[in-house]
Fold this protein.
Amino acid sequence: MKKLKDSLLKSFVGVMGIRIVASGLGFVLNVLLARLLGVKGLGIYTYALAWHQLLYIPALLGLDNLLIREVAIYTSQSSWGLLRGILRWSNQMVLISSVSIALIAIAIAWNFGFEDKEMLLTFSLAMLLLPIAALRNVRLATMKGLRLVIMGLMPEMLIVPIVIIVLTGCLYLFVDKNITASWVLGTRIVATLITFAIGIYLLNKALPEPVKQATCEYQIRTWSTKLLPFMLLGGMYIITSRCDMLMLGAIKGTEAVGLYGPVTRGVELLAYILTAANNILSPNIASLYSENKLEQLQQLVTRSSRLMLLMSLPIAAILIFGGNWYLSLFGSEFVQARSALTILCIGQLFNVATGSVGVLLTMTGNENYNLIGSVINVLLNIVLNLWWIPNWGIYGAAAATASSTIVVNIVLVILVYKRIGINPIALGQFK
């Protein structure tokens, strides 16, 4: 157990290091875009990306989460033929689905969609980005399953923002000082293509040699049966994470989205901590549970929950009490969103304190129960957004997201304890 803890701690420190640097780069990028695009332009860019992220989940078909679990299991069992088979099948399925969804979305947008030409062009570019990003995520999920999280994250987390910053700066200095949202989306496509190529190279180096020499073995019926709950889970997650943004844009317009964007970016600093831990924990939870090492699993979960909460508290305090300073970096007009920032921080802190509940259910074969919680989250989020956004705008969107987050985490904690016998919260006890 000590060797496992040391290994996980090193991985967590490495992932957090990458995410801290990535957060800094993302912060610089967001400030740059806010200054160059203004509230309206940033709103168009953020709104188009929100649609991209919404359609990104059905394009993946849930294969990213399935891959993490199955790759970890096949590797521990030395099932090299099945590992190669699921990798080939996953790439084929994601390519077909992502291209189909992108083309359908573009056709709908051009025939029945946005009247604003800049919004239409930016949305279309966001859809062209869809297949590249989806295939890149298949490689990232494979690297996570192989417990090479740091190597998998580096291209996406570090190279993408650097390329966008550099290209956007070059466009402003040498091409056209009137940068638009579509120009910035174009730079994101270039950056994603670069990281996609790097991901192919890194995965080829990382795959065990027996995998490359093995003959593909397929269990398509088994994999397909497992996909539906994973796909629905992914859909529920992305709907919840982007529901406030999309409904805010539909009800209050893109300028409200522009004001809300820096708020969600700030709260993502807290989400990064949970995401980093989940990236490391996922394959290890699957392995420990399959080996029936529940006591070790409880220790691992409790220690990780406490560490996440400990790291989150100072970040939340800075965002809550220094909200005016943080938002003013984007421009004086963004300061009015401070209350929304505080509300979202409280909701995210509760999310961190309840631990990796979703991952625990998913990696132990209880993804259907995770789906129940996600459905509750989505329905509650939509209802509260419809109720509160018309009257309270960005503050209503923040309150709806925070409230639904708190409710669903209470439900998931209960489900984890009943189904697995593990107490996932930071105050959980272990021997």
User: Anything to note?
Assistant: The chain has 15 helices and no strands. The two ends are 13 Å apart (CA to CA).
